[in-house]
Amino acid sequence: MKIDIMTLFPEMINAVMRESIIGRAQDKGVVEVKATNIRDYALDKHHKADDAPYGGGRGQVMLAEPLYLCHQALSAGEHVHTVFLSAQGQPFNQQKARELLAKEHFILVCGHYEGIDQRFLDECVDEEISMGDFVLTGGEIPAMAIVDAVSRLIPGVLGDDICFTDESHWNGLLEYPQYSRPEEWHGRRVPEVLLSGHHGNVADWRTKESYKRTMARRPDMWARFDLTQVHSRHDKKVLAQALEEYAREQGGAPETE
After folding, report:
1. In angstroms, rounded to a whole number, what is the distance separating the alpha carbons of residues 66 and 83?
2. Count helices and strands in the chain by DSSP H and E runs
3. pTM given for the model
4. C-beta separation of 143 from 7 below 8 A
5. Are 52 and 67 in contact (CB under 8 A)?
6. Is the pLDDT of residue 179 over 50?
7. Using one digit for the tens of pLDDT, what is the confidence trace for 208-229?
8. CA-CA-CA-CA torsion for 160, 163, 164, 165, nearest 10 degrees?
9. Which DSSP string do the residues of 6-42 spell out, in sequence order?
10. What is the rounded average pLDDT of the residues 74-99?
Protein backbone atom coordinates (compact mmCIF):
# COMPACT_ATOMS: atom_id res chain seq x y z
CA MET A 1 0.00 0.00 0.00
CA LYS A 2 1.11 3.53 -0.77
CA ILE A 3 -0.04 6.55 1.26
CA ASP A 4 0.90 10.08 0.20
CA ILE A 5 0.47 13.01 2.55
CA MET A 6 0.31 16.57 1.23
CA THR A 7 1.52 18.94 3.94
CA LEU A 8 3.34 22.16 4.75
CA PHE A 9 5.32 20.33 7.46
CA PRO A 10 6.72 17.05 6.08
CA GLU A 11 9.41 16.85 8.78
CA MET A 12 6.69 16.61 11.42
CA ILE A 13 5.19 13.56 9.72
CA ASN A 14 8.46 11.86 8.80
CA ALA A 15 9.68 12.06 12.39
CA VAL A 16 6.73 9.94 13.55
CA MET A 17 6.15 7.67 10.57
CA ARG A 18 9.72 6.32 10.64
CA GLU A 19 9.36 5.04 14.21
CA SER A 20 7.91 1.95 15.89
CA ILE A 21 5.58 -0.45 14.07
CA ILE A 22 4.87 1.81 11.08
CA GLY A 23 8.57 2.47 10.60
CA ARG A 24 9.34 -1.25 10.62
CA ALA A 25 6.49 -1.90 8.17
CA GLN A 26 8.02 0.64 5.81
CA ASP A 27 11.44 -0.97 6.18
CA LYS A 28 9.87 -4.31 5.17
CA GLY A 29 8.16 -2.71 2.19
CA VAL A 30 4.67 -3.57 3.43
CA VAL A 31 3.54 0.06 3.31
CA GLU A 32 5.04 3.23 1.86
CA VAL A 33 4.24 6.54 3.57
CA LYS A 34 5.53 9.68 1.87
CA ALA A 35 5.08 13.28 3.06
CA THR A 36 5.38 15.88 0.29
CA ASN A 37 5.83 19.60 0.91
CA ILE A 38 3.10 21.61 -0.83
CA ARG A 39 5.42 24.64 -0.89
CA ASP A 40 7.64 22.81 -3.37
CA TYR A 41 4.89 23.42 -5.94
CA ALA A 42 4.39 27.13 -5.23
CA LEU A 43 4.71 29.41 -8.23
CA ASP A 44 6.90 32.17 -6.76
CA LYS A 45 10.45 32.27 -5.45
CA HIS A 46 9.24 32.66 -1.88
CA HIS A 47 7.30 29.37 -2.06
CA LYS A 48 4.09 31.10 -1.04
CA ALA A 49 1.25 28.63 -0.52
CA ASP A 50 -1.40 30.90 1.02
CA ASP A 51 -3.04 34.30 0.58
CA ALA A 52 -5.78 36.49 2.02
CA PRO A 53 -9.37 35.28 1.51
CA TYR A 54 -11.70 36.92 -0.98
CA GLY A 55 -14.49 38.73 0.83
CA GLY A 56 -12.23 39.73 3.71
CA GLY A 57 -11.78 38.13 7.08
CA ARG A 58 -8.95 37.09 9.32
CA GLY A 59 -6.26 34.57 8.48
CA GLN A 60 -4.97 33.09 5.26
CA VAL A 61 -6.31 30.52 2.80
CA MET A 62 -4.14 27.88 1.15
CA LEU A 63 -3.88 28.50 -2.59
CA ALA A 64 -5.48 26.15 -5.10
CA GLU A 65 -2.64 26.02 -7.64
CA PRO A 66 0.20 24.72 -5.41
CA LEU A 67 -2.21 22.16 -3.97
CA TYR A 68 -3.30 21.12 -7.45
CA LEU A 69 0.24 20.82 -8.83
CA CYS A 70 1.32 18.78 -5.81
CA HIS A 71 -1.72 16.52 -6.19
CA GLN A 72 -1.06 16.07 -9.92
CA ALA A 73 2.53 15.06 -9.24
CA LEU A 74 1.48 12.46 -6.67
CA SER A 75 -1.39 11.04 -8.71
CA ALA A 76 0.64 10.96 -11.95
CA GLY A 77 -2.43 11.59 -14.08
CA GLU A 78 -4.40 8.71 -12.55
CA HIS A 79 -7.38 8.96 -10.22
CA VAL A 80 -6.15 8.38 -6.68
CA HIS A 81 -8.64 8.42 -3.81
CA THR A 82 -8.03 11.72 -2.03
CA VAL A 83 -9.03 12.69 1.50
CA PHE A 84 -9.02 16.18 2.99
CA LEU A 85 -8.60 16.22 6.79
CA SER A 86 -11.29 18.65 7.89
CA ALA A 87 -13.34 19.45 10.99
CA GLN A 88 -16.32 19.51 8.61
CA GLY A 89 -15.78 15.94 7.41
CA GLN A 90 -17.40 12.66 8.36
CA PRO A 91 -16.06 11.22 11.64
CA PHE A 92 -13.25 8.71 11.24
CA ASN A 93 -13.90 5.24 12.65
CA GLN A 94 -12.82 1.63 12.27
CA GLN A 95 -15.17 1.06 9.35
CA LYS A 96 -13.61 3.97 7.48
CA ALA A 97 -10.16 2.52 8.22
CA ARG A 98 -11.28 -0.74 6.57
CA GLU A 99 -12.58 1.17 3.54
CA LEU A 100 -9.24 2.94 3.10
CA LEU A 101 -7.47 -0.39 3.55
CA ALA A 102 -9.09 -1.50 0.30
CA LYS A 103 -7.29 1.28 -1.60
CA GLU A 104 -3.88 0.42 -3.05
CA HIS A 105 -2.97 4.11 -3.00
CA PHE A 106 -4.61 7.11 -1.36
CA ILE A 107 -3.68 10.73 -0.69
CA LEU A 108 -4.25 12.66 2.53
CA VAL A 109 -4.38 16.47 2.28
CA CYS A 110 -3.45 18.46 5.40
CA GLY A 111 -5.01 21.90 5.65
CA HIS A 112 -3.78 24.89 7.66
CA TYR A 113 -4.69 28.46 8.49
CA GLU A 114 -8.34 29.30 7.72
CA GLY A 115 -8.70 26.46 5.26
CA ILE A 116 -7.96 25.75 1.60
CA ASP A 117 -9.44 27.07 -1.60
CA GLN A 118 -12.80 25.37 -2.19
CA ARG A 119 -12.04 24.97 -5.90
CA PHE A 120 -9.24 22.51 -5.14
CA LEU A 121 -11.63 20.51 -2.96
CA ASP A 122 -14.25 20.48 -5.70
CA GLU A 123 -11.78 19.30 -8.33
CA CYS A 124 -9.51 16.85 -6.53
CA VAL A 125 -10.94 15.65 -3.22
CA ASP A 126 -13.17 12.57 -2.93
CA GLU A 127 -14.12 12.89 0.73
CA GLU A 128 -13.47 14.89 3.89
CA ILE A 129 -12.71 13.13 7.17
CA SER A 130 -12.75 14.53 10.70
CA MET A 131 -11.15 13.20 13.88
CA GLY A 132 -14.09 14.48 15.90
CA ASP A 133 -16.03 17.56 16.90
CA PHE A 134 -13.03 19.75 17.65
CA VAL A 135 -10.59 21.89 15.70
CA LEU A 136 -6.81 21.41 15.36
CA THR A 137 -4.20 23.78 13.98
CA GLY A 138 -3.59 21.54 10.99
CA GLY A 139 -4.24 18.19 9.40
CA GLU A 140 -0.93 16.51 10.20
CA ILE A 141 -1.99 14.82 13.45
CA PRO A 142 -5.22 13.44 11.91
CA ALA A 143 -3.24 12.26 8.87
CA MET A 144 -0.80 10.35 11.05
CA ALA A 145 -3.67 8.85 13.06
CA ILE A 146 -5.31 7.60 9.87
CA VAL A 147 -2.03 6.16 8.55
CA ASP A 148 -1.54 4.31 11.83
CA ALA A 149 -5.11 2.99 11.98
CA VAL A 150 -5.06 1.76 8.37
CA SER A 151 -1.49 0.46 8.26
CA ARG A 152 -1.90 -1.81 11.28
CA LEU A 153 -4.66 -3.67 9.39
CA ILE A 154 -2.34 -4.57 6.52
CA PRO A 155 -1.27 -8.24 6.68
CA GLY A 156 2.29 -8.46 7.92
CA VAL A 157 2.34 -5.19 9.86
CA LEU A 158 1.26 -6.77 13.15
CA GLY A 159 2.31 -10.23 14.25
CA ASP A 160 -1.15 -11.81 13.89
CA ASP A 161 -4.62 -10.77 12.75
CA ILE A 162 -5.91 -11.29 16.30
CA CYS A 163 -3.81 -8.27 17.28
CA PHE A 164 -6.52 -6.09 15.76
CA THR A 165 -9.58 -8.35 15.42
CA ASP A 166 -9.61 -8.79 19.20
CA GLU A 167 -9.48 -5.05 19.90
CA SER A 168 -12.03 -2.31 20.45
CA HIS A 169 -14.33 -1.37 17.57
CA TRP A 170 -13.44 -4.28 15.28
CA ASN A 171 -16.71 -6.12 15.99
CA GLY A 172 -18.71 -3.14 17.25
CA LEU A 173 -17.70 -3.60 20.89
CA LEU A 174 -15.04 -2.28 23.26
CA GLU A 175 -12.20 -4.57 24.27
CA TYR A 176 -12.19 -6.45 27.58
CA PRO A 177 -9.79 -5.44 30.43
CA GLN A 178 -6.17 -6.63 30.25
CA TYR A 179 -3.91 -7.75 33.12
CA SER A 180 -0.26 -8.77 33.52
CA ARG A 181 2.14 -9.71 36.33
CA PRO A 182 2.16 -9.57 39.34
CA GLU A 183 -1.04 -11.34 40.40
CA GLU A 184 -1.64 -8.69 43.08
CA TRP A 185 -0.77 -5.00 42.81
CA HIS A 186 -1.71 -2.34 45.39
CA GLY A 187 -4.21 -4.79 46.87
CA ARG A 188 -5.89 -5.39 43.52
CA ARG A 189 -5.89 -8.95 42.23
CA VAL A 190 -6.08 -10.33 38.73
CA PRO A 191 -9.50 -12.00 38.20
CA GLU A 192 -9.23 -15.64 39.17
CA VAL A 193 -10.62 -16.89 35.87
CA LEU A 194 -7.53 -15.52 34.06
CA LEU A 195 -5.31 -17.65 36.32
CA SER A 196 -7.36 -20.81 35.84
CA GLY A 197 -5.78 -22.00 32.60
CA HIS A 198 -9.27 -22.88 31.32
CA HIS A 199 -9.31 -21.33 27.86
CA GLY A 200 -13.06 -21.64 27.40
CA ASN A 201 -13.83 -19.88 30.67
CA VAL A 202 -11.29 -17.17 29.88
CA ALA A 203 -12.88 -16.60 26.47
CA ASP A 204 -16.36 -16.37 28.03
CA TRP A 205 -15.13 -13.92 30.69
CA ARG A 206 -13.52 -11.71 28.06
CA THR A 207 -16.69 -11.72 25.97
CA LYS A 208 -18.84 -10.80 28.99
CA GLU A 209 -16.48 -8.00 30.00
CA SER A 210 -16.48 -6.68 26.45
CA TYR A 211 -20.27 -6.56 26.51
CA LYS A 212 -20.39 -4.91 29.93
CA ARG A 213 -17.70 -2.34 29.15
CA THR A 214 -19.51 -1.33 25.95
CA MET A 215 -22.82 -1.04 27.80
CA ALA A 216 -21.27 1.18 30.46
CA ARG A 217 -18.91 3.37 28.45
CA ARG A 218 -20.49 3.55 25.01
CA PRO A 219 -24.27 3.09 25.18
CA ASP A 220 -24.40 4.52 21.65
CA MET A 221 -22.27 1.60 20.41
CA TRP A 222 -24.29 -0.90 22.41
CA ALA A 223 -27.51 0.43 20.89
CA ARG A 224 -26.06 -0.19 17.42
CA PHE A 225 -24.65 -3.62 18.23
CA ASP A 226 -26.40 -6.33 16.21
CA LEU A 227 -27.58 -8.88 18.77
CA THR A 228 -28.70 -11.20 15.97
CA GLN A 229 -25.05 -12.10 15.39
CA VAL A 230 -25.13 -13.92 18.76
CA HIS A 231 -26.27 -17.28 17.36
CA SER A 232 -25.42 -20.33 19.46
CA ARG A 233 -27.10 -21.31 22.70
CA HIS A 234 -23.78 -20.93 24.51
CA ASP A 235 -23.16 -17.44 23.16
CA LYS A 236 -26.69 -16.37 24.09
CA LYS A 237 -26.06 -17.68 27.60
CA VAL A 238 -22.88 -15.59 27.87
CA LEU A 239 -24.78 -12.50 26.70
CA ALA A 240 -27.54 -13.13 29.24
CA GLN A 241 -24.95 -13.45 32.00
CA ALA A 242 -23.35 -10.18 30.92
CA LEU A 243 -26.70 -8.38 31.04
CA GLU A 244 -27.45 -9.87 34.46
CA GLU A 245 -24.03 -8.93 35.86
CA TYR A 246 -24.26 -5.43 34.42
CA ALA A 247 -27.67 -4.86 35.99
CA ARG A 248 -26.41 -6.11 39.35
CA GLU A 249 -23.20 -4.08 39.27
CA GLN A 250 -24.66 -0.88 37.80
CA GLY A 251 -28.06 -0.98 39.46
CA GLY A 252 -30.11 -1.33 36.31
CA ALA A 253 -30.27 -2.30 32.66
CA PRO A 254 -27.90 -0.71 30.15
CA GLU A 255 -28.87 2.59 28.60
CA THR A 256 -30.05 2.65 25.01
CA GLU A 257 -30.46 5.53 22.56
Report:
1. 17
2. 10, 9
3. 0.83
4. yes
5. no
6. yes
7. 999 999 999 999 999 999 998 8
8. 80
9. EES-HHHHHHHHTSHHHHHHHHTTS-EEEEEEGGGG-
10. 96
